[in-house]
Specification:
Layout: H1 2-22, H2 26-37, E1 39-41, E2 63-65, E3 72-76, E4 83-85, E5 98-100, E6 105-107, E7 122-124, E8 131-132, E9 146-148, E10 153-154, E11 170-172, E12 179-180, E13 215-217, E14 222-223, H3 290-322, E15 338-340, H4 354-360, E16 367-370, E17 374-380, E18 386-392, H5 401-415, E19 425-432, E20 435-442, H6 449-454, H7 463-483, E21 498-500, E22 506-508, H8 513-523, E23 529-531, E24 534-536, H9 548-564, E25 569-570, E26 574-575, H10 576-584, H11 603-616, H12 627-637, H13 642-648, H14 652-659
Parallel strand pairs: 3-5, 4-6, 5-7, 7-9, 8-10, 9-11, 11-13, 12-14, 15-24
Antiparallel strand pairs: 1-4, 2-3, 16-17, 17-18, 18-20, 19-20, 21-22, 23-24, 25-26
Helix pairs in contact: 1-3, 5-8, 7-9, 7-12, 9-11, 11-12
C-alpha cells in the first residue's frame, strides 16, 4: 500500500512536470507579441486574433507550428499592407524555418538578429520599404535556401558573407539602392568560368562559393565594377540597370552613376534583448540501495527541473520587461511614473485643457483628417483664432516613458517655428484622465494643396497663383534649413503637408512628425537614464530627425506635381519623376509637363521651374543646390505681379477674375 501511494505521488508529480514541459515556449509567444507591437497599422486586421494573453499562438493568422504544436516554424503574412518595423526579437523563434512578409509596408532596417535563426530556410522581405544595409550576419544562416529582399530601399554594399551560404539556391536583391561591387572572392574575379569553381589556395568569401546558387537577381541597383566570371551563367537581365562596366546588359547612364542614389527616410527599429541560455545542472549518482537511488534521482530531477523552469520563466519575464519602462497604472496619481524633462523646455508653450479643446472643436465632432497615428479636428477658440487639433491615437497601456519624453521634446521643437509660410504650433494638451496627447496648430482655412490640385477646380489655381505657392514653399523651407538653429525638416514633404490660407498663401505643416517620435523613442530608449521612478532626458539625446537633402528632393517632386497637376505616383502611369524625365531633358517639349487644365502659362517661368526641378532631383546629393539658393533662383526669375500676368496674355484677365 505504501509503495502504491508513493508511485501515485510520483506519477502525479511527473504528470505535472510533463504538462509544464509541454507548454508552448513563453519566449516564442513574447517574440510574436513584440512583432505585433512593432506594427502600427493593420488595415486588413490580419493580426486581429493575435491575443497577447493567449499562451498558444498556433491558431493565430499567418502562424504555422510544428507537428507537436510546440514551436513556431513558419510566419507567412504577405500582401497584408502591414505598416511598422521588424522586431529584432524574432530571433527568439529558434525553430523558425520560413519568414515570409512579402508585399507589406515595413520600414526601418533589417535587424541583425535575423542572422541568429539557424534553422531558417526561406527569408522573404521583398516589396516593402526597408532601408539601411543588408546585415552581413545573414551569412550565418547556415540552412538558408532562398533570400528575397527585392523592391526595398536597401543601401550599402552587398555583403560578401552571403557567399558562405552553401545551400543558397535563390537570391533576389534587385530594385534597391545597393552600391559597391558584386563580391566574387576576396574582392577579385575568378579566372575560371565554371560555376562554383575557384583557384586552389584562395580563401573565397563571395558568391563564387555559392555552389548551389541557381537564381540571382542584382538588377536596378548602383553596383559598380564587373560581373564575376563565376556568375556569367546567370541571365544578363540579372545585372541590368546598374553601373557595371558592361554595355550589355543595359546599364544606368553616367549621370545617374555619378553619385549616390536619392536619400530615403530612415527609421530605427526596436532595441533587442540578449537572452543567455541557462545551463542544466549535472546530477551525480552515489552508492545507495537501488530503489532508494532511483527514487532520489527521479524526485531530484523533477524538483530541479521545476525549479529551473520557474527560474527561466521569471528571468525571461524580467528581461522582457526591462527593455522599456512602462507607464505605471494606478488609481493614485502619486503612483504614476514621474517624468523629468528640462523644466524650461515647455515654459513658453501654451498648455490647453482637454475641456477647452473639446468646447472649441464642438465635442470633437468636426473631424477634418485622420490617419492610423492621429485624428485632426477643426475648432475655434473663444474670442480667438481657428485651430487644427491633432489628437495622437495611442492607447494609455501602450504609452511609455520614452514616448512621453519625445512628445514633450517634439512640442518644444515645433513651438520654435515662426514664419509666414509655416504652420504655427500655438499649444498642446497633456492629461491623464482621460488619457490625452494633443497638438494645437493655427488653422489654414483653404484645405491642402493636394485637394486643390487633384480634387478641386483647376481654374482656381492659375499659373501665377501656382508660382506664388511655389515661392512661398521655397521661402518656408529656406527658413527651416538656413535660418533656424538647429535646422528643421519636414518629415514627409508633399502636397498634403502644404495647407493654404484664404488668399492661397502656403503653410508648411508637419502633421506626420508623430511617426518620427515613435522611431526615435525606439532607437534611443537605452540612452535614457533612470533612477527609481524618475527618467532623465540627457542633453546628448538624438535631436529631431534631420533630412535636408530628402526635403530638397521632395521639393523637386512637389514642383512637378504643382505644374503638371499629376499626383507623385499614379497606378496607371507610374512615378511622376520617371514620367517627366524625358520632357525635362528636351527643352522643345517642356510644355508637355504643364497641367492641361491651365489655359495660360509663361514659358520663361516654366524653364526656371524645370531647371530647379533638375537641381533638386539630381541623384548625387552633393550636387543638389541648397534651398536658400533655389529660393533665390525662383524669386529673381519669376515675376508674380499682376502687371506681369496681364502683359503675358489677354486670357489672364479672365483668370484674374476667377482667382480673385
Amino acid at each position: 500500500m505504501r509503495t502504491c501511494a508513493l508511485l501515485q505521488v510520483l506519477v502525479t508529480v511527473f504528470g505535472l512536470f510533463l504538462v509544464i514541459c509541454d507548454a508552448f515556449p513563453s519566449n516564442e509567444v513574447y517574440a510574436l507579441n513584440t512583432f505585433k507591437e512593432a506594427i502600427y497599422e493593420d488595415p486588413l486586421l490580419v493580426l486581429s486574433n493575435w491575443n497577447a494573453l493567449d499562451s498558444d499562438p498556433c491558431g493565430w493568422a499567418g502562424i504555422f507550428c510544428s507537428l507537436a504544436q510546440d514551436h513556431v516554424i513558419k510566419i507567412n503574412i504577405s500582401g497584408a499592407s502591414l505598416k511598422g518595423f521588424l522586431s529584432p526579437n524574432l530571433h527568439l523563434l529558434s525553430s523558425l524555418q520560413e519568414l515570409i512578409l512579402h508585399g507589406n509596408v515595413l520600414i526601418g532596417t533589417i535587424p541583425k538578429e535575423i542572422g541568429l535563426l539557424k534553422k531558417l530556410k526561406f527569408l522573404d522581405l521583398g516589396a516593402n520599404q526597408l532601408t539601411g544595409p543588408i546585415p552581413p550576419v545573414l551569412g550565418n544562416l547556415s540552412n538558408i535556401m532562398k533570400i528575397n529582399l527585392q523592391s526595398n530601399g536597401l543601401t550599402g554594399k552587398l555583403p560578401a558573407e552571403l557567399g558562405n551560404l552553401k545551400y543558397l539556391e535563390e537570391l533576389r536583391v534587385d530594385r534597391n539602392k545597393l552600391q559597391g561591387i558584386v563580391p566574387a572572392n576576396n574582392g577579385s574575379d575568378f579566372t575560371s568560368g565554371v560555376h562554383g569553381m575557384y583557384a586552389s589556395g584562395a580563401s573565397p568569401t563571395g558568391f563564387c562559393r555559392s555552389s548551389q546558387l541557381k537564381v540571382a537577381d542584382f538588377s536596378f541597383n548602383f553596383l559598380i565594377g564587373s560581373i564575376p566570371k563565376c556568375l556569367v551563367y546567370l541571365p544578363k537581365s540579372s545585372f541590368q540597370g546598374n553601373c557595371l562596366q558592361h554595355k550589355d546588359p543595359k546599364q544606368r547612364s553616367a549621370a545617374l552613376c555619378g553619385g549616390t542614389p536619392p536619400p530615403t527616410y530612415h527609421a530605427s527599429t526596436v532595441s533587442s534583448n540578449k537572452h543567455r541560455p541557462v545551463e542544466e545542472p549535472k546530477h551525480q549518482a552515489s552508492s545507495k540501495p537501488t530503489w532508494l537511488l532511483a527514487l532520489e534521482v527521479v524526485t531530484g530531477v523533477m524538483v530541479g527541473s521545476l525549479f529551473i523552469v520557474a527560474l527561466v520563466t521569471g528571468l525571461q519575464k524580467f528581461k522582457n520587461k526591462s527593455s522599456i519602462i512602462p507607464w505605471k497604472k494606478s488609481g493614485s496619481e502619486k503612483d504614476h511614473m514621474t517624468i523629468y524633462v528640462d523644466t524650461g523646455m515647455l515654459k513658453d508653450v501654451v498648455k490647453y485643457s482637454r475641456q477647452e479643446l473639446e468646447v472649441a472643436c464642438e465635442d470633437f465632432s468636426n473631424i477634418i483628417g485622420s490617419s492610423p497615428d492621429s485624428v485632426v479636428y477643426k475648432g475655434t477658440m473663444k474670442g480667438g483664432p481657428e485651430i487644427a487639433v491633432i489628437s495622437l491615437c495611442v492607447k494609455e497601456e501602450h504609452w511609455t516613458a520614452y514616448l512621453e519624453l519625445y512628445f514633450q521634446k517634439e512640442v518644444a521643437e515645433l513651438a520654435r517655428i515662426n514664419h509666414e509660410n509655416a504652420g504655427k504650433l500655438i499649444g498642446y494638451c497633456r492629461e491623464s484622465s482621460p488619457f490625452t496627447r494633443m497638438l494645437v496648430f493655427e488653422y489654414a482655412s483653404n484645405g491642402t494643396l493636394y485637394e486643390h490640385l487633384h480634387y478641386g477646380e483647376g481654374c482656381q489655381l492659375s499659373w501665377t497663383r501656382r508660382m506664388k505657392i511655389v515661392i512661398g514653399i521655397a521661402k518656408g523651407l529656406t527658413y527651416f534649413h538656413s535660418e533656424l538653429d538647429p535646422p528643421f525638416t519636414i518629415s514627409e514633404l508633399n502636397s498634403n503637408s502644404v495647407y493654404l490660407t484664404e488668399d492661397f498663401s502656403p503653410k508648411l505643416v508637419d502633421f506626420e512628425s508623430w511617426k518620427s517620435i515613435i522611431s526615435r523613442s525606439e532607437k534611443n530608449s537605452g540612452a535614457i537614464s533612470c533612477e527609481g521612478a524618475i527618467c532623465v532626458l540627457p542633453n546628448s539625446l538624438e535631436s529631431r530627425h534631420l533630412d535636408v537633402q530628402g526635403n530638397i528632393y521632395a521639393f523637386g517632386v512637389l514642383l512637378l506635381e504643382i505644374i503638371s497637376g499629376r499626383p507623385p505616383y499614379c497606378k496607371d502611369k507610374g512615378c511622376l519623376v520617371d514620367w517627366a524625365k524625358e520632357f525635362l531633358e528636351v527643352p522643345e517639349v517642356l510644355s508637355y509637363v504643364v497641367d492641361p487644365e491651365l489655359k495660360h502659362f509663361k514659358e520663361e517661368d516654366l524653364k526656371v521651374i524645370c531647371e530647379v526641378i533638375n537641381l533638386c532631383i539630381h541623384p548625387s546629393t552633393s550636387r543638389r543646390t541648397s534651398m536658400k539658393d533655389l529660393c533665390a533662383i525662383l524669386e529673381s526669375n519669376i515675376d508674380t505681379s499682376i502687371t506681369a500676368e496681364l502683359k503675358a496674355s489677354s486670357l489672364a484677365w479672365a483668370e484674374l477674375a476667377l482667382s480673385s
